[in-house]
Amino acid sequence: MSNPSIWFVTGSQHLYGPEALKQVAENAGIVAAALQQSAHIPVDVVARPVVTDPEAARAVVLQANADPMCIGVVLWMHTFSPAKMWIGGLTKLTKPVLHLHTQFNEKLPWSTIDMDFMNLNQAAHGDREAGHLHTRIGLRRKVVAGHWGHESVQKRIGSWARVALAWADWQGAKFARFGDNMRFVAVTEGDKVSAEATFGFSVNGYGIGDLVAVVDGVSDSDVSALIDEYEVLYDLAPELSKSGARHEALRYVARQEAGIKAFLDQGGFKGFTTTFEDLHGLDQLPGLACQRLMAAGYGFGAEGDWKTAALLRAFKTMEAGLEPATSFMEDYTYDLTEGGETVLGAHMLEICPTIAATKPRLEIHPLGIGGKSDPVRLVFDSKTGKATNTTLVDLGHRFRFIVNDVDAVDVPAMPHLPVARALWKVQPSFQDGVEAWIYGGGAHHTVYSYNVTSEQVRDFADIAGVECLVIDASTNLNSFRDAAKWNEAVYRG
Ligand code: MN
């Protein structure tokens, strides 16, 4: 989006007279300008005229709905704004909402405070009137409380803005599937019609032969340009270098990368899936191409996993402008040392190099499945630190997000494992975290991110109106299991 913005909508009423309303508008402008200038908020924040009656409330909502650049609306009741005047507007709102519960003054002026001050600065109860109505009409929204000038508050608004940006990016987004999902697999199946109705993106299949034609049509000079880029960004195995015995295999994957990218860009696709069971006409299972295209911001899911492809794209949007660190991931194997259990995450090939701790190595090795030539791939260890694993599953009649806070730890040397990998400990403990994930029906494929937080995943799910189960340091397994059951009644709809 060229210039996405959040609308800052302040509520009041006429009861206090024109002088007070003038002050409200001035203060609202100052708050919006501060948020606009905040380094923590990645989009424009635009102050709208103060809303004082039902007609204005309805008008601003319809304008927000109609403006494609408006990705969300911040609501704040500077004074008391009787909430019935908001019903006609807010029941029609289609954009994400953040209710900012703040006050213009940080500190109370103890020695001068009078009733005029009290009447002007009454968000403390004006926002409660608003919140009551929001709850009563079922308005899904993020509530952020605290002074607007505080960095912590601006960070939370910015974090939500990133979520709203990803939601806007999903609306009308297109994802291409090359082949179906891996045969007989349950969790990568799903209802693409329901997904489009719920999330706003569409998923459609394309013949592998059509992709092969584009790949084969890539020019030699485009291939050479990519090889030059690889030489700068990665350590090449000697056999892949220009004088190496297997350099032609590297030229082929460069051709594959350029071809897939051209196919996606020509069709306006924001992500794609591949499957090793449908590669007719391709010489290698795309490994490096998927890794590089993820790093460029495209969504990707292996084995036809379109839900994870779409989710990865959403995360890539959420981390825009930050140092990117998000990948397609799979819980591959465990170290079950008692008390020190870790998950080794990897895939056959397709892990995004944005999570690499060091310069990736470009290598070529045999692959036991797929029946194609040895695929080229980037091999690296991933960063340490706090991360999240997120899954989006289709329960048949509805969708569910599950997000798990994890702690990525140092990866021991594994000289015989020729794939990119990450190693992490799950919160709140291996036993409770993994058992909760399995009770929740979470997939083995995830989006793994060092930037996107479980709070953001929950906010994202809430905008979609979809359940989100959070597994973090505070998770109690019994409560988690109960919530998952109770949610069945809440979300069945
Ligand atoms: Mn897989």
Features:
alpha/beta, binds manganese (II) ion, 39% helix, 15 helices
Give the SSE map:
Blueprint: E1 5-11, H1 18-37, E2 44-47, H2 54-66, E3 70-77, H3 84-90, E4 97-101, H4 115-120, H5 123-136, E5 142-145, H6 151-170, E6 174-178, H7 192-199, E7 202-206, H8 208-216, H9 220-233, E8 235-236, H10 247-267, E9 271-273, H11 288-295, E10 299-301, H12 306-318, E11 326-335, E12 342-346, E13 361-364, E14 376-379, E15 385-394, E16 399-408, E17 421-426, H13 430-440, E18 445-449, H14 454-464, E19 467-471, H15 477-491
Bound molecules: manganese (II) ion.
How far apart are the first and last residues' alpha carbons, in Å? 33 Å
Instruction: List low-confidence stretches.
Output: none
* Inertia-based shape: elongated
Main beta sheet strand tally, sense and closure: 6 strands, antiparallel, barrel
Provide the spatial order of strands within the biggest beta sheet. Answer: 11-12-17-16-15-18
Please report the total strand number as a whole number: 19
Mean pLDDT across all residues, rounded?
97
Approximate helicity band = 25-40%
DSSP strand (E) fraction?
15-25%
Oligomer: single chain
List the bound ligands: manganese (II) ion
Alpha-beta classification:
alpha/beta
Write down the Rg: 25 Å
Total helical elements: 15
Structure description:
The chain is α/β, with parallel strands linked by helices and 493 residues long. Helix content is 39%, strand content 21%. Strands 11-12-17-16-15-18 form a six-stranded antiparallel β-barrel. A five-stranded parallel sheet has the order 2-1-3-4-5, with helices on both faces. A four-stranded parallel sheet has the order 7-6-9-10. Helix 6 crosses helix 14, helix 10 crosses helix 11 (288-295) and helix 13 runs parallel beside helix 15. The model has no long low-confidence stretch (mean pLDDT 97). Manganese (II) ion is lined by residues 302-303, 330, 347, 445.
